[in-house]
Specification:
332 residues; alpha+beta; T-fold; 3-stranded antiparallel sheet; 9 helices; 30% helix
Length: 332
C-alpha cells in the first residue's frame, strides 16, 4: 500500500538516510548513506571523510607539503611515492590514453601560465596580476604524459624534466569514487563532490537517487533532474572557475594542443556513465572538443548519456538522455 504523504510503500521497512557535508579538494562534498543503524552510518561517513581528507593531502597541488607537490619538484628524477598517488596517476594516464591526449594531467605549467597559480578561493580574492604565457608550454604540446615512467614494483614515478602534474578533476572524481566504496559496505549511497557524483544502489527499493543539473547561465535554477542508480555523473564547465587578470579572462580547462584555455562553444557538459571516472574524462574531453564532436563522442560511448549547454544557451543531448529524467525534471 502506498503512503499518500510520502509516496513510499507502507509495507516496506525502509532504510534511513544519513548525511555528512564538508569542504575538501576545493569543492563541497555531500555524502549520503541508507542504513537502519545510525551508529554504523556515522562510522562509515566518518571513515569516508577521513579518506577524502587524506586524498587532498596526497593530491593537492596547492599544498607545498603534499605528495604531489613533492613529486613535481623531483621532475627528471626517479621518485618513490605513496600507493594512493601512484594509483591516481595511473588512472590519469589511462584517461589521457583513452582520450588521445585531450585530457592531459601534465597541463600544470599551462594552468599556472593562464593565472591559475593558487587555489580558486584565493584567486577570487586576489587582484595580483599574472603574466600570461606568450607561447604554449612545450611539455603540453608534446604530450609529455606519454613519457612518464611508472614502476609498480616500488611505486616509483619518473616525470620528464620540466613536466609537472595537476590531478584536478580526475583526482576529485577518484576520491568520490573511493569514498563511495567505503560507504557501500554500509548501504546504498551517493557521494557528491562539486560536479562529480558517484551513486551506488538505490535510495529506496525501486527508486534511484536524484541528481539535479544546474543551469550554468542561472545557477539558482535547474535544467534537469536525473534519477540514477549505480553510476557516475560528472559536470565540466567554464561557467564557474573563471578569472580576469590585466583585462584577460581565462578559465581552468586547458586545451593541451595549444597549452591555453580551450576555445570552445560549450559552457558546460554533464555526462552520465557507468562510473564517475569515465564520466569525468568524457566531460572534460567534450568541453575541449566542442559541441559537435562532443555529441558524437558521448553517443558512441557505451552506456553513456550527456547534456551539453552551449555558450549561446542552446542545449543538446544524446538520444537516450531523456530516459534518465525524473518525473519532476526540467524541460528540455
Amino acid at each position: 500500500m502506498l503512503d499518500e504523504a510520502t509516496g513510499l510503500d507502507a509495507d516496506i521497512e525502509y532504510e534511513e538516510l544519513h548525511q555528512l557535508a564538508f569542504h575538501a579538494m576545493g569543492s563541497s562534498f555531500d555524502l549520503w548513506v541508507a542504513c537502519k543503524s545510525g551508529e554504523a552510518a556515522r562510522m562509515a561517513l566518518s571513515d569516508a571523510r577521513r579518506f577524502v581528507d587524506d586524498a587532498e593531502q596526497v593530491m593537492s597541488r596547492f599544498r607545498e607539503d603534499s605528495d604531489l607537490s613533492a613529486l613535481n619538484r623531483k621532475a627528471g628524477q626517479r621518485a618513490e611515492v605513496v600507493p594512493m598517488l601512484f594509483k591516481v596517476i595511473q588512472v590519469a594516464l589511462e584517461a589521457a590514453s583513452r582520450s588521445k591526449g585531450i585530457y592531459d594531467p601534465t597541463v600544470l605549467p599551462a594552468l599556472v601560465a593562464a593565472g591559475y597559480d593558487r587555489s580558486f578561493v584565493d584567486l577570487q580574492n586576489d587582484d595580483a596580476p599574472f603574466a600570461a604565457a606568450e607561447a604554449a608550454p612545450q611539455a603540453v604540446a608534446d604530450q609529455a604524459w606519454n613519457l612518464i615512467e611508472l614502476d609498480e614494483s616500488d611505486h616509483a614515478i619518473t616525470l620528464p624534466a620540466g613536466v609537472q602534474i595537476d590531478l584536478g578533476g580526475i583526482g576529485k572524481a577518484w576520491a568520490a569514487h573511493r569514498a563511495a566504496d567505503i560507504l557501500e559496505h554500509t548501504g546504498p549511497c551517493i557521494v557528491s563532490a562539486g560536479g562529480d557524483v558517484t551513486v551506488r544502489g538505490e535510495a529506496y527499493p525501486g527508486e534511484g537517487w536524484f541528481v539535479a543539473i544546474k543551469d550554468p547561465l542561472c545557477p539558482e535554477r535547474q535544467i534537469a533532474n536525473l534519477e540514477v542508480s549505480t553510476s557516475g555523473v560528472a559536470t565540466s564547465g567554464i561557467d564557474r572557475r573563471r578569472w580576469t587578470r590585466n583585462g584577460v579572462t581565462a578559465h581552468h580547462i586547458i586545451d593541451p594542443r595549444t597549452g591555453r584555455p580551450a576555445e570552445t562553444d560549450l559552457l558546460s557538459v554533464t555526462v552520465i556513465a557507468p562510473d564517475v571516472l569515465i564520466a569525468e574524462r568524457l566531460a572534460l574531453t567534450a568541453m575541449v572538443l566542442g559541441s559537435q564532436r562532443a555529441l558524437d563522442l558521448t553517443e558512441n560511448e557505451c552506456a553513456t548519456e550527456a547534456l551539453l549547454v552551449l555558450v549561446d544557451g542552446r542545449r543538446l543531448h544524446t538520444s537516450r538522455f531523456s530516459t534518465l529524467l525524473a518525473p519532476v525534471g526540467g524541460e528540455m
